[in-house]
Amino acid sequence: xxxxxxxxxxxxxxxxxxxxxxxxxxxxxxxxxxxxxxxxxxxxxxxxxxxxxxxxxxxxxxxxxxxxxxxxxxxxxxxxxxxxxxxxxxxxxxxxxxxxxxxxxxxxxxxxxxxxxxxxxxxxxxxxxxxxxxxxxxxxxxxxxxxxxxxxxxxxxxxxxxxxxxxxxxxxxxxxxxxxxxxxxxxxxxxxxxxxxxxxxxxxxxxxxxxxxxxxxxxxxxxxxxxxxxxxxxxxxxxxxxxxxxxxxxxxxxxxxxxxxxxxxxxxxxxxxxxxxxxxxxxxxxxxxxxxxxxxxxxxxxxxxxxxxxxxxxxxxxxxxxxxxxxxxxxxxxxxxxxxxxxxxxxxxxxxxxxxxxxxxxxxxxxxxxxxxxxxxxxxxxxxxxxxxxxxxxxxxxxxxxxxxxxxxxxxxxxxxxxxxxxxxxxxxxxxxxxxxxxxxxxxxxxxxxxxxxxxxxxxxxxxxxxxxxxxxxxxxxxxxxxxxxxxxxxxxxxxxxxxxxxxxxxxxxxxxxxx
Length: 516
Prior knowledge:
It is elongated and about 80 Å long. It folds into 3 domains: 21-205, 3-Layer(aba) Sandwich (Rossmann fold), CATH 3.40.50; 212-283; 346-515, no CATH class. The chain starts with 27 loop residues before the first helix and ends with a strand. Strand 10 (422-427) and strand 11 (435-441) form a beta hairpin. It is α/β, with parallel strands linked by helices. 43% of the residues lie in helices and 16% in strands.
């Protein structure tokens, strides 16, 4: 059977297109040789488990070590019941080792030990019986919480001094977060804030995304197997849209090769990549859905809300900002500054936040369409004004992020307008103080800029016209909308301030100014 692009679970070389997994973790083999304990943390579905499974296999094949990947996720439901969590963990470890290791390398039977000592005792007995140095990767470690997690870390620290004869020679914790961000309800905080229960770690490593040449190499494997060609422009666009995030790189390719262009004689073009991107964004598969779920966390919200509203960041700790980078929500530009990790996330995140407002919308007759199904922007304007007058303020109160509620309600309305028949693209970034929207429907392209008029600020009309003109030039359009939402403390009631007017930019672009 031909190989395919994998989007679920670890990659397997015989079944999936995949890159050598250890090229993105070059330090690991040195740490193992130095008998180090270390942490590998990275966002979900970036290739952590694939990499450590491959490394364990290589270590076993070398004949110098005995290695295994062991998960502790099974202990998560037991909360603070340390003994029950340990028994569940050790039972699943036994099943895993029976499957992956030959009998002569498997550990002896787990002896009974008091709760809070069972993990240490099991690893100690196995290390003593093992004919070679033991290298263990403990996966999903941050699935544990509170006392069960603290107990695990302390047991590992307690046994550390007996390595390599009486405890694993090298050991790694694998998860989403670094140690200090493990979830522990303690002292009024929900985080550990320290590495002290595991202060034996030498380094905390993370797994980077693919670079552009690696994306091309991965896609070339499909070409070599099937003859189907990814045009260079298509591969380049796939990298630009994903910034090399491994799940997205594979998900785009899977959509392209299995759904959009299943015949290997069809070349993959940039237009097809754009189509695949839109399908992924609309579908919000598990990876995208779980990522967006992070937006509900308070420490995420305090940073993401101003970014989505193009405002300056408030005073936040470097630790919290790094947390969002580690989660894969943000990345640091080489020249400095935080941005959304990639263009696909940039579309998905505000769309998810707008979903609540969109679900709350009443039935709206598509009065903005002509009898031939074309979008009429004048009709759309009238429909929007009527909608905002009737429902806007009520929906603002229900928006997930209050500071960017106008943006979310506007996007909810526009998503109802396109309803699968068009696209809505967004541009926003820290400090720009605006959100640019591009609505495409059939032959119509409508550029929209949303500005918020806040207390103690000047009317943003003049600045908005200049900014919208720049945006329209990039869209190659001669007209657009400038929406000004009045959020001042002394703003007039909506019925009195709601109006539209015509304006012209310095270079003659025609602008409809909408005041809400």
